[in-house]
Specification:
Number of strands: 2
Shape: flat
Strand order of the largest sheet: 1-2
Radius of gyration: 19 Å
Helix content: 25-40%
Number of domains: 2
Oligomer: single chain
Order of helices and strands: EHEH
Strand content: 5-15%
């Protein structure tokens, strides 16, 4: 029997969860829907820029969907740092090198 999170969620009938009120009442600048890899990365970057962030997740953080993508979270750039600096210049090249 496959693990419960190995079956695509869109192939299973779903019923909507009962809505719940947020606790706390602090004002936020950005609301992120989903606590998977992309949602958490977006929240982290927004927070680093000084935004007050709230992540809303229906289940557990990182549950299911983050692992259904093939499990590959790797940088997409395969260029040498010297090439990036030369091609994009010192400012933008350094950002890509540090990515």
């Amino acid at each position: 029997m496959p693990a419960p999170f190995s079956d695509p969620i869109w192939q299973k009938p779903q019923s909507a969860a009962a809505p719940q009120a947020l606790v706390g009442g602090k004002p936020v600048d950005v609301v992120i829907i989903g606590g998977g890899i992309m949602g958490l990365s977006t929240a982290l970057h927004a927070a680093r820029f000084g935004f007050a962030v709230q992540v809303l997740e229906a289940g557990e953080i990182g549950q299911g969907a983050s692992g259904l993508n093939g499990g590959q979270v790797i940088p997409g750039l395969k260029y040498d740092p010297e090439w990036l600096l030369e091609h994009f210049g010192p400012e933008r090249g350094e950002i890509l090198v540090n990515f």
